[in-house]
Amino acid sequence: MAEFGARNDPAPQSGSDLSRRFAGLLTLCGLPLLCLVLYLAWATYGRAEVTAQAREHLVEHIVLVAGIVATFTVLAVLIWRQFVAPAVAIARFGAEARGGHAGAVPNVPQPWLSLRRQVASAVDEQSQRIHQLRAMIDGIPLRTVYVDHLLIYRDANREFLEFVGKTAEEVIGHTVEEILGPKVVAQYVAMGDRVRSGEVMRWEGWIDFVEKGGRYLQVSLIPYVPIGEIEVGFLTFTRDLTELKIGEQELARNIDALARSEALNKAVVQSSLDAIIVSDEDWQVVEFNPAAEAMFGYSREEAVGQKSWDLVVPHDLRQMQVDTMERYKAKVDVGSMARRFETLARRKDGSAFPVEYSVNTVRSGGFRLFMAHVRDLTEAHRMADEAQASRERLHQVEKLSALGSLLAGVAHELNNPLAIVIAQSSLLVEKAQADDVRRRGERIHAAAERCGRIVKSFLAMARQKPPQRSPVDINQVVTGALDMVGYGLRSSDIAVELKLGEGLPTLTGDRDLLTQVLANLVINAQQALMDRSAPRIVRVETREAGDRIAIVVSDNGPGVPPDLVRRIFDPYFTTKPAGVGTGIGLSICRNVVEAHGGTIALTNQPEGGARFDISLPKSEGAMEQAVAAAVAEGRPGLSVLIVDDEVDVAQSLAEIVEGLGHQAIIVDRSNLALERIGSGVFDIVFADLRMPGLDGIDFRDRIHAIDPALADRTIIVTGDTVAGPDRLAKAQGSAVVVLEKPFTFEDVKGVLAKVATNDLAARLSPKG
Q1: CATH 3.30.565.10 in the chain, residue ranges
Q2: Is the Cα dihedral 258, 262, 263, 264 positive or negative?
Q3: Is 489:536 a contact under the CB 8 Å cutoff?
Q4: pLDDT above 70: residue 207
Q5: What class does CATH assign to 272-376?
Q6: pTM for the full model?
């Protein structure tokens, strides 16, 4: 690297040194001769005894000496011009060329021309090497400088000059601190001792420049001693990696952001409630998220690599799906379908279910990926079906409510006269002496009872009351249901075969709900028979089956399709066209039966037609039946107060009570009745719900304040079964016992039995 430092070093003085040395050599050679001449002159002429002859030859001697000196001088000049001067000129030319300051080629005598050519050729070659080396140094992408031991710039390449924005003259001879600032000086100082000891130092990191700011550098410091010097300087090679470092940092940030984005995307895909299926351009699955695993039943390992439609599309829809997706792939490069579609999908077990899906197209690494988002609509469809069923039920309820309001108004007006007709016909049958009178009374009584059952059935359907459990005669439930739907059966030319078991025990339940169940089953049978030619038959049978009561409703129609048998009791399932039916539904029928501890089942009969088997548990209330039997035997001794502003109704009720062997007193005002209660003792009180002044509930509450036990034995008589239950619910004390109009002889016996049962149970219960 001597050439790198020669560019700005002072030119060497090799020619002058040679001249001085030659002059010194001549002096050394001539001085002894001069001394010899001077000695001879002194020896010859300096002594006193020098002879005259010697003095005569003094001039000759002087001339001789002068000739010798002149000869020696001429010889010295010739030697200088022919030998020393050319050599000095050639040496100076070579030295200047080595220092980068070569001038013109010197003129030399003929014998020196060959040497001059050799030196000139060597100088040219060296100059070319120097220029080549200089160009190489200026061309390398490193900032290269030579800094001496005083930290003064002695040389710098083009890369460094461009970095600092200065010329060579503005840099060379100036200190590092002046050019780059104190922080760079500190780096030199920190590594200076080790470099001076001969160690090559390397350093990499950020450093702040005065004008350039922070730069990331990779620096190598090499010790260097120029020729002719003894102090160690620094050859510094600097690679500026700032842009690369910033790029690395940006790349690291991008990689980190990409990793976070991928993690986020993966988390979104993995946690999505929608199934996400990603396919390549060949429609092979490359991603199958957990929601897709749960939805379709395939594991991710099973799904990846498979054709997407082979996994999730039903066979009958597969070709259509393939055509649709191929058209989409040809049309859309990047983007989405812009809307969702509903279709059917297939699970691993082969079952089909409704889904909503959309497809997005994205680019990844030069390839297209198709991302399908699939949402299971099973629950949404179920909720929609429930909502539709609720709307239909609401529509049915509204229709029933409107019909019930109409029927309630009519029935309420019919209840009082019907109560009189039924009561009087019952008494007529009891007291008639002639058989023809008794038969007429029985026909009147049967017709009136039938009217009463129809009115009660319609009122039961019209009112929306909570289930009320009481002893129920299932045969009466069956006949009541048939009375309610009898006209429709007769108008459709459908015969009813009724087989009622005799002596069946009662069961505990809600008479109205059970009536609705039986009516609904009979109506279903009627509708199933409409497309059949005569004979059309509906069979209803009741019988005792161990500790249960069995009810069978069957028909000779087409039956139920086998694939619908298992669904016939599903909620909101129906095979009927819109607007047909009662709105009860077989699902509600099953709920009612199961709420009574029973079961209901559907079978298709071998001979044709559907058969519904209902099994209900018998009543566990042996006490009620025993008391009812005791009352039915007409055990005398009960004092009964009847309070009703309808005298005819009160009179009919009194005659039935007296017919059962009890004493009855009628009062048409509630305030008068309270006075009678205060002055007398009554076992049972009948009070009409709707009376002027105090109604039945207020009257019962007044009794409760006087005699709570008698209030519990107070029976409310009402024909208002629509608004009445709300009023009854506000009564004080125990549950109110109700006798509904129109009432029969058996109804009165039953309600007396119930009151007697409650009273007996109260007396037998342990006291606190």
Answers
A1: 466-620
A2: positive
A3: no
A4: yes
A5: alpha beta
A6: 0.41
